[in-house]
Design a protein that fits this description.
By secondary structure, the chain is an alpha+beta fold. It has helices at 2-13, 32-45, 51-63, 72-80, 86-98, 117-131, 155-161, 199-206, 209-230, 238-256, 273-298, and strands spanning 70-71, 102-107, 110-115, 141-147, 165-168, 171-174, 188-194, 300-301, 304-305. Helix content is 49%, strand content 12%. The protein is globular, with a radius of gyration of 22 Å. The two termini are 41 Å apart.
């Protein structure tokens, strides 16, 4: 019955026209279903619609904590909730498998997919950034790397891996000790400098903070209507909960993984990152139980219904 309902939902939603230009600021008193539909409209308004990227978000957020494997039939039914038809799903899965993101296991006529070991490692590192807020240590000193005349440009990727950001083509800055070994090169000078009143402006310039801040503000504008619609309701429809949860993480992770994660002492006073994280956490906690119930009833791996989420799942966005 659940599969039949999902197929019916898929037939209906594909006939919904989508605007190419949608407002970001929305009324905050809309019903839950309307708020979720508006988020879907906004997702599809972006061209091209990258179904493969949404599938990766679904795996990292919802499938990896529950064993990591998903039947292609279950995936197609879930993606129908996002207005992505089965043909686009098959195309996306072929691409993701060819590019080394996913691996396929055939059992009879059925196909099951999971992240490759390479991508599981990537998601382990990303998970900490997305779901857990860690204040980086800062001793009040900036690290400067100065490139003297004749230093090869090849040293710049090594500086980036070590945590340095370019202030000028010859001056790089970091807020802690290098995270990776730097090459011993004549003409590469490493210095310490006390952070002073100019540190905020220096950090904003080196790490290009304003575009990231704007993305955070847009995220807040986009998801505040859903937060208001949910209010203190104890339960919501499971399909809506899963769609909203995945879209939430899909947008949030793209910002967080570009955020350099500077200590608060170097951020502007009006930095919106903390407010965006609070909103994301509040929504995620509201959506988690009902979205998990939907997966309980509709998602399968080789052994049947997906196993329960791993114990660490309940700690995501846990309030401190």
């Amino acid at each position: 019955m659940n599969r039949l309902l999902a197929r019916c939902r898929r037939i209906v939603v594909f006939d919904i026209p989508m605007s190419n230009s949608l407002p970001i600021s929305l009324p905050i008193s809309m019903p839950i279903a309307t708020a979720v539909a508006t988020l879907l409209d906004q997702f599809h308004a972006k061209r091209p619609v990258r179904a493969w990227s949404l599938i990766i978000t679904l795996y990292g957020d919802a499938i990896v904590p529950r064993g990591g494997s998903l039947w292609l039939g279950s995936l197609s039914e879930i993606m129908a909730l996002f207005r992505v038809d089965a043909g686009h799903v098959r195309t996306a899965m072929s691409r993701l498998t060819a590019d080394g993101w996913l691996k396929r296991v055939k059992v009879g006529r059925n196909s099951y997919y999971r992240l490759t070991r390479r991508e599981e490692g990537s998601f382990t590192a990303a998970t900490q950034r997305i779901y857990f807020a860690d204040e980086p240590a800062f001793d009040g000193r900036l690290r400067l790397a100065l490139l003297g005349p004749g230093v090869a440009a090849s040293v710049r990727p090594a500086l980036a891996r070590a945590g340095f950001a370019a202030l000028t083509p010859a001056t790089y800055v970091a807020f802690d000790e290098p995270r990776a070994r730097l090459p011993a090169i004549d003409g590469l000078f490493l210095l310490h400098a006390e952070a002073d009143d100019a540190a905020h402006a220096l950090a904003a310039a080196a790490w290009e903070l304003e575009p990231i801040a704007q993305h955070y503000r847009d995220f807040i504008d986009r998801f505040t209507p859903l937060d208001s619609a949910l209010g203190k309701r104890p339960r919501i429809e499971g399909a809506d909960a899963l769609v909203a949860r995945v879209l939430l993480i899909h947008e949030f992770r793209r910002i967080v993984l570009r955020d350099p994660g500077l200590p608060a002492a170097l951020l502007p006073a009006d930095w919106p990152g903390a407010a965006a994280r609070q909103l994301a956490g509040r929504l995620y906690r509201k959506l988690a139980a009902d979205s998990e119930s939907y997966l309980d009833a509709n998602a399968q791996d080789q052994k049947g219904p997906l196993p329960a989420a791993e114990p660490g799942f309940s700690a995501r966005f846990a309030p401190k």
